[in-house]
């Protein structure tokens, strides 16, 4: 069976820092990122608070028990193929039967996008540039 996989080309945080995305409980959050989103933990820290750096395709984000509100943060992932990205998440066990693709414009760039909200409350937008 062929593995369906999209490549992350870039990542931008919604707030200031994609390396300090707030989660209420790091240990509870990590399995979703590893199992569903395909990240792997590359490092962990305990000071100044519990946090972990996770990596996929050479792009890293950080999850941190920093007291922030996860419902107000997340990342935008630019991917090479938004439909493959959704198929990969579904194959990994994402409980969302159908993608809700939308078209959004930022500046002069048109994007085909879909959203995933992690159990910790962080929201992720996957987007593919449109010509």
TrEMBL record:
Pfam families membership: Glyoxalase
UniProt cross-references to InterPro entries, sorted A to Z: Glyas_Bleomycin-R_OHBP_Dase, Glyas_Fos-R_dOase_dom, VOC_core
Domain VOC: 15-129
Top-level taxon in the UniProt lineage: Bacteria
Listed name of the protein: VOC family protein
Native source organism of the sequence: Spirosoma telluris
Organism lineage string: Bacteria, Pseudomonadati, Bacteroidota, Cytophagia, Cytophagales
């Amino acid at each position: 069976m062929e593995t369906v996989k999209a490549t992350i080309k870039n990542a931008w945080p919604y707030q200031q820092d994609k390396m300090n995305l707030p989660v209420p409980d790091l240990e509870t959050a990590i399995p979703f990122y590893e199992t569903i989103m395909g990240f792997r933990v590359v490092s962990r820290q305990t000071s100044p608070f519990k946090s972990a750096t996770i990596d996929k395709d050479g792009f890293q984000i950080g999850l941190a028990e920093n007291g922030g509100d996860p419902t107000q943060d997340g990342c935008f992932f630019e991917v090479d193929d938004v439909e493959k990205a959704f198929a990969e998440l579904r194959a990994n066990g994402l409980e969302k039967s159908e993608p809700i693709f939308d078209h959004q414009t930022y500046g002069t760039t048109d994007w085909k996008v879909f959203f995933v909200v992690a159990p910790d409350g962080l929201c992720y937008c996957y987007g593919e540039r449109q010509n």
